[in-house]
Specification:
By secondary structure, the chain is an alpha/beta fold. The protein is about 30% helix and about 15% strand. The protein is built from 22 helices and 27 strands. Bound molecules: 1-deoxynojirimycin (NOJ).
C-alpha cells in the first residue's frame, strides 16, 4: 500500500514537472504540434544570419573524393545547417551536433553523404544493378545501405543518380541504371522507397536525393562537368521522366546539376527548378546545389562574381548551397543592399527545417555509438547483396555451353582482376573496404576447392609489363580451362573519370590472346564500370561473363554463376558499341530517313549495329515464348487493357527470365523512337514450367508521348506491342 502511494506520488510529481517544463517550450520544440507550425515558429525566431547559415552545407570528417575537398576546414561553425559527413562512425558527428544544439535556438545539423551503392556493405554499382531488372531486390539493398548509414550518423544520402546516359566514355555512367528512361524511373522509385522506407523518422531510414537535375548525363563527348545540349523535346521525353517518377515516389530532396544545358546553367534554371519541379510537380522538398555548382556559375561565365552567382542560384530555385560558401558570404549583403528579399531566403530555410523535423532530428539529434559489428555486414544482408550481384551479371557469350564449368576440372584463374579486391568495390565505394571484398579467386576456391585451381596474375591492369605472362601461360597449360579476369581499375569510372578509349588496356588484351593461343577453352570475366568496346577480344574467349563492379560479395556471386549453382539472368541495361566511334549508340534511337538496304546510319568501316544490344543476355537454360495475347485490339483512351505472354522454360535448369515490353507507334507528328520500353517484369521459371507475364497497358501513359512542353498526347492509329521477339498490333481509336 505504502509502495503504491509513493509510486503514485512520484508519477504525479514527474507529470507536473514535465508539464511545467513543457510550458517553457517554444512551439517549435513541442513535438505535439504539426511540422508546419513548428517550422513557422522557428523561422519567426531566426535572425537573417541564422537563416543563411541554415541553408549552407560544408564538409565534416574525411572526404574520400579529392575533387570535392575544400581547403582544410578551420573549425566548424555550429550554426551551419548541414554537413557532408565522411566518417564511418558517429563520434565526430555527435560532437558537431552537440555544438549545434548549444546555439541560441539549438537547431540540429543535418548530415549527408554519398551512399551510392552501399555504406559499408557495398553492392553492385548502379549500372550493374540495372542489369538485374530486379527492383524489389534492389529496394531491399538500398534499405540495407540506409540502415548502415543512419546507424552511423548519416540521415541523408545523395542518391539515386538518375541521369540517363548514352555515352560510355562518361565515367558517371556507372552511377545510373543505363541508357533507358523507363528503367531509370523504375530503379529510381525502388531506391527512394528503399532509402526512405515508410517514414524517414525511422532510425534505419535516410532521406533520398534525386540527382543531378538535369541533363548532366548528356555531357559532350563524355567529358565531365562540361556543357550539355538537349532539345526541349528530348529533355521531356528522355531526361525528365525519372525525376518525375522520383518526385511522385516521395523523394525528399533534389540536387541541381553542374552542367549548363542548352544555354542555361542548371543550378540557376527557373524553368526546370521552379516551373517544372515546383509549379508543375508540386515538389515541396529541399533543393541542394551540387558541390560548388553555385560558385561555378562564375566559371561558366553566367555570373560575374560569387555574389551574382548566389543571387542567381537562390532566386532560381536552389535552397541549400553545397560546398563553396557562396551563400554565407553573399546573401546577407544582398538583403542589406535591398537586392534580395528575405521571403526568398525564408522559403529556402523552410525546406531545410521541414526536412529536419521530418527526420525527427529535433527529438533525436544524437546518434547512438554502436559497434561496427552490430552496424555492418549482417549475414542476411550479405546474402541479399550477393543475390543482387548474381542477378546483375550478364552472360555475353557461351560457345559450346562452356559454362557452367564442369566439376572436377583443373582451372587456371588468371588476370589482373582475378584476385583483386579493391577494384570490385567500384567507385563511390562509401566506407567499403577492400579487405571486405571476396575476390573472384577467393570465391572460386570456396566453390570449387583450392586443389582444382591454379592462380597467376599475369599482368597489372594497365602497366605495359609482360614479365608475368610466362607464369600465367604455364598455369593455363597445366589446366583444363582458363578463367581470365580482366577489366578496369575502379577509379576509371565515377566522377571526373572519363575515358576517350573504352577498350581493355593493351597489356590485358595481349594476355588474353596468349592464353587463347594455348588452345584451352577460355572463360573471360569482365569487371568494369562502363560498357567496353570488346570487338578485339570477343573472338578470344569461348564464354564471356560481365560482372561489373559487383561489391563485396562479388567473388562469391561469380563463383556461383561459374559453377551453375546460380543460372545467370542479367540483361544489358546499356548498349555495348563495337567501337567508341559508334557512340552515342542506344536502342531507342528515332527512325532514320533511310532505313532499308543497309543505309541505316551506315559506317564504311564497321557494321552500324552494336556488339551487344540493350536487353541482351544469355542464360544456362532456354525460354520459349508464346504469341502475345491482348484483351482488345481496339483501344480507347482511358480504357486500360491487358496483354500477356507465356514463357516456358524448355532447358535443363531453373532460371529467371525478364520480359521487356516495348511499344512502337506507326506514325506520330513528333518523331518517336523505333521502340520504347514501357514495362518489365522478372520471374523465376522452373525447368519445364510455363509462366504467364501480364501487363496492364494504360493507353495514354504507355502508348502516348510527350511534346516539347511536357504535354502528354495520344494519337489515334496503329501501335505495335512487342516482347521476346513476338508482337501484336492494336489500334487506338478516338
Ligand atoms: C559532387 C557530385 O557531383 C555529387 O554527385 C555528389 O553528391 C557531391 N559531389 C557530394 O559529394
Amino acid at each position: 500500500m505504502k509502495k503504491t502511494i509513493i509510486l503514485s506520488l512520484s508519477i504525479l510529481i514527474c507529470g507536473m514537472q514535465s508539464y511545467a517544463k513543457q510550458k517553457e517550450l517554444y512551439p517549435y520544440q513541442d513535438a505535439r504540434r504539426t511540422i508546419d507550425e513548428r517550422v513557422e515558429d522557428l523561422l519567426s525566431r531566426m535572425t537573417l544570419h541564422e537563416k543563411v547559415m541554415q541553408i549552407t552545407q560544408l564538409r565534416a570528417g574525411n572526404n574520400d573524393q579529392p575533387q570535392n575537398q575544400l581547403e582544410a576546414m578551420k573549425g566548424i561553425d555550429p550554426l551551419m545547417g548541414s554537413f557532408i559527413y565522411s566518417n564511418s562512425d558517429c563520434k565526430v558527428r555527435n560532437q558537431v551536433q552537440e555544438a549545434a544544439l548549444k546555439t541560441r535556438l539549438g537547431i540540429p545539423a543535418l548530415f549527408g553523404y554519398d551512399v551510392i551503392h552501399g555504406f559499408r556493405s557495398i553492392y553492385s554499382v548502379p549500372l550493374g544493378v540495372g542489369c538485374s531488372w530486379n527492383t524489389e531486390l534492389y529496394q531491399k539493398a538500398c534499405a540495407i545501405a540506409a540502415k548502415e548509414a543512419r546507424m552511423s550518423g548519416v540521415e541523408w544520402t545523395f542518391a539515386p543518380m538518375i541521369d540517363v546516359s548514352r555515352d560510355p566514355r562518361w565515367g558517371r555512367i556507372m552511377e545510373c541504371y543505363g541508357e533507358d528512361t523507363y528503367a531509370n524511373s523504375r530503379f529510381c522509385v525502388a531506391a527512394v522507397k528503399g532509402f526512405q522506407g515508410d517514414t524517414i523518422s525511422n532510425p534505419h531510414n535516410v532521406a533520398a536525393c534525386l540527382k543531378h537535375f538535369i541533363g548532366y548525363g548528356a555531357s559532350e563527348a563524355g567529358r565531365d562537368y562540361v556543357y550539355t545540349e538537349i532539345s526541349d523535346q528530348t529533355l521531356w521525353d528522355t531526361y525528365i521522366p525519372p525525376y518525375e517518377a522520383g518526385v511522385k515516389a516521395g523523394a525528399k530532396t533534389v540536387m541541381s546539376a553542374f552542367n549548363c544545358m542548352s544555354g542555361i546553367a542548371t543550378s540557376a534554371n527557373p524553368y526546370t527548378l521552379k516551373e517544372i519541379l515546383r509549379n508543375q510537380w508540386g515538389f515541396n522538398g529541399l533543393v541542394v546545389s551540387d558541390w560548388a555548382s553555385v560558385k561555378q556559375l562564375v566559371d561558366q561565365r553566367v555570373a560575374l562574381d560569387r555574389k551574382e552567382a548566389s543571387f542567381l542560384a537562390i532566386t532560381n530555385g536552389v535552397d541549400m548551397n553545397m560546398g563553396d560558401n557562396c551563400f554565407p558570404e553573399n546573401l546577407e549583403p544582398l538583403v542589406q543592399e535591398g537586392k534580395l528579399d528575405t521571403y526568398t531566403i525564408d522559403n529556402a530555410v523552410r525546406k531545410v527545417l521541414k526536412l529536419k523535423f521530418e527526420l525527427g532530428l529535433f527529438e533525436n539529434p544524437m546518434t547512438k555509438d554502436i559497434p561496427e559489428s552490430k552496424r555492418f555486414k549482417h549475414k542476411e544482408d550479405l546474402e541479399l547483396i550477393r543475390q543482387l550481384a548474381e542477378e546483375s551479371f550478364v552472360l555475353l557469350k557461351n560457345e559450346n555451353q562452356l559454362l557452367p564449368l564442369q566439376k572436377g576440372k583443373k582451372v587456371a584463374v588468371v588476370g589482373p582482376l582475378a584476385d583483386d579486391q579493391d577494384d570490385l568495390l567500384g567507385q563511390w565505394k562509401g566506407h567499403g573496404l577492400a579487405e571486405d571484398v571476396v575476390s573472384v579467386f577467393q570465391g572460386m576456391k570456396k566453390e570449387f576447392g583450392a586443389e582444382h585451381l591454379i592462380h597467376a596474375k599475369g599482368c597489372d591492369i594497365e602497366k605495359a609489363d609482360t614479365s608475368g605472362f610466362a607464369e600465367a601461360i604455364e598455369a593455363v597449360k597445366k589446366s583444363d580451362i582458363a578463367v581470365v579476369v580482366l577489366g578496369e581499375n575502379r577509379k576509371w569510372a565515377g566522377e571526373s573519370a572519363s575515358r576517350s578509349d573504352i577498350q581493355l588496356p593493351v597489356v590485358q588484351v595481349q594476355l588474353l590472346k596468349a592464353v587463347k593461343r594455348t588452345g584451352k577453352p577460355v572463360v573471360l570475366i569482365l569487371s568494369n564500370g562502363r560498357p567496353l568496346a570488346l570487338t578485339n577480344v570477343e573472338s578470344q574467349a569461348d564464354a564471356i561473363l560481365e560482372i561489373w563492379q559487383p561489391g563485396i560479395e562479388g567473388g562469391n556471386a561469380c563463383a556461383h554463376v561459374l559453377s551453375g549453382a546460380v543460372c545467370p539472368s542479367g540483361k544489358l541495361d546499356v548498349t555495348f558499341p563495337r567501337s567508341v566511334g559508334q557512340v552515342p549508340i542506344y536502342y531507342n534511337r528515332r527512325w532514320p530517313a533511310r532505313n532499308g538496304g543497309g543505309w541505316n546510319g551506315r559506317y564504311q568501316d564497321i557494321p552500324s549495329t552494336p556488339l551487344y544490344e540493350f536487353g541482351y543476355g544469355l542464360s544456362y537454360t532456354q525460354f520459349a515464348a508464346s504469341d502475345i495475347k491482348t484483351s482488345t485490339t481496339t483501344v480507347k483512351r482511358g480504357q486500360p487493357f491487358k496483354v500477356e505472354i507465356s514463357i516456358t522454360n524448355t532447358g535443363k535448369c531453373n532460371g529467371k527470365e525478364t520480359v521487356h515490353w516495348y511499344i512502337a507507334a506507326r506514325s506520330s507528328h513528333i518523331a518517336r523512337p523505333m521502340k520504347e520500353l514501357k514495362f518489365f517484369e522478372k520471374k523465376e521459371i522452373q525447368k519445364g514450367e510455363t509462366i504467364t507475364y501480364q501487363w496492364t497497358v494504360d493507353p495514354l501513359r504507355d502508348l502516348g508521348f510527350v511534346d516539347k512542353v511536357g504535354h502528354k498526347f495520344l494519337h489515334p492509329g496503329e501501335y505495335t506491342i512487342s516482347a521476346c521477339g513476338k508482337s501484336i498490333q492494336v489500334n487506338v481509336v478516338d
